[in-house]
Specification:
The protein is α/β, with parallel strands linked by helices. About 30% of the residues lie in helices and about 25% in strands. The radius of gyration is 19 Å and the shape is elongated. The termini are far apart.
C-alpha cells in the first residue's frame, strides 16, 4: 500500500452523530512521498496533475463536511484513485446535482453514484462498496422475519428503506423513527427485532449507536456505490477502471471500509426477500 494513502486511511475520525461533523487527520501525521508519473492528462481531465472529484457534502459515511474539509469513504477512495493515477486530489461538493456538475465539466468524476440508477446517463465503474436495503439483527445467523410473525422492524421514516419494507410487512410490524441511530438504539434496547437500512449507512449508524449488528437479508437486488465518468471520455474511463482494480487488489478498499464501517460489506451473500416470501 502506498505510504501516503496508508497514512490517510490510518487517521481516525470522531463521529459526533450520523449527520454531524467528522474530524480529519492531524496535519503533523501526513507524509508525502514522491508521486507517480501522471497516468492521464488534459483534455481528459480538467487540470493537468489534478483529479477533480465531485462528492456530496451531506451523505455520511460516504462523504460529509468535517473540520478539515470533506471526509468519508468517498473522500478516501478518491484519494486512493488519484494517488494510483499519479495525480493530486481536489474535492468538490456537487450537491444537489452531481450529474449536472459532471456533464458541465465542473468535475472529472463523481463518487458515490448508485450502480442501479438508470437515470444517470453516464459510464459507471464497478461498485467499490456494495449496498442495498438490508435487514440487520443483533443475532449472528438470524433469518429474516415473515409477514405476520409479529417481529418489529425499526426504520428511518420517509426513507427508501421504509418504502421498501412497507409492502413486505404489516404496518404494526414497522417502527418508524426520525433517524437511523435511534432505530439501532431500539434494536439494542429490545424495542425492535430488526432494523431496515441501506447496508452502508446502516453499518455506519450502528457504529454511531455503539450496537453490534449482523446483516441477515437484502430486499430486492444488491447494488453498490460506484464512480461516474462522462461516457464520451474513453481515456478517463479506462484509467479509472484500471486504478480501481489496482486499489481493490492492494486491499485499500477493504481498509477504507473497515475504517468507517468496522467491517467490509458483502451483500451478495445475503438471502434476498421478495414480496411472496415476506
Amino acid at each position: 500500500m502506498n505510504k501516503r494513502i496508508g497514512t490517510l486511511i490510518a487517521c481516525g475520525t470522531l463521529i459526533v452523530c450520523l449527520a454531524g461533523v467528522l474530524c480529519g487527520c492531524n496535519s503533523s501525521q501526513k507524509y508525502e512521498p514522491a508521486m507517480k508519473n501522471a497516468a492521464i492528462t488534459s483534455p481528459s481531465i480538467i487540470e493537468n496533475g489534478v483529479l477533480t472529484v465531485g462528492v456530496s457534502g451531506e451523505n455520511a459515511p460516504m462523504s460529509a463536511k468535517g473540520s478539515t474539509g470533506i471526509v468519508g469513504i468517498d473522500a478516501d477512495m478518491a484519494a486512493a484513485i488519484a494517488d494510483e493515477l499519479g495525480l493530486k486530489l481536489k474535492l468538490v461538493d456537487v450537491d444537489p446535482d452531481p450529474m449536472a456538475a459532471l456533464n458541465k465539466g465542473t468535475v472529472d468524476i463523481v463518487m458515490g453514484v448508485d450502480k442501479g440508477d438508470a437515470t444517470a446517463n453516464v459510464w459507471k465503474s464497478d461498485p467499490y462498496v456494495q449496498s442495498g436495503v438490508t435487514l440487520f439483527s443483533k443475532t449472528q445467523g438470524a433469518t429474516a422475519p415473515t409477514k405476520g410473525s409479529g417481529s418489529k422492524i425499526a426504520v428511518q421514516a420517509a426513507s427508501l428503506s421504509n418504502w421498501a419494507i412497507s409492502s413486505l410487512y404489516d404496518p404494526a410490524e414497522i417502527v418508524a423513527e426520525s433517524d437511523l441511530v435511534t432505530a439501532f438504539k431500539d434494536l439494542a434496547d429490545g424495542k425492535a427485532d430488526y432494523v431496515a437500512a441501506d447496508a452502508v449507512i446502516g453499518m455506519y449508524a450502528a457504529k454511531a449507536a455503539s450496537v453490534t449488528v449482523y446483516p441477515v437479508a437484502i430486499i430486492d437486488a444488491p447494488t453498490g456505490y460506484c464512480i461516474a465518468v462522462k461516457d464520451s471520455n474513453s481515456s478517463l474511463k479506462s484509467s479509472i477502471a484500471s486504478a480501481l482494480t489496482a486499489v481493490n487488489k492492494d486491499g485499500i478498499t477493504d481498509t477504507i471500509q473497515k475504517k468507517w464501517l468496522v467491517e467490509t460489506i458483502d451483500v451478495s451473500k445475503l438471502a434476498a426477500i421478495t414480496s411472496s416470501e415476506a
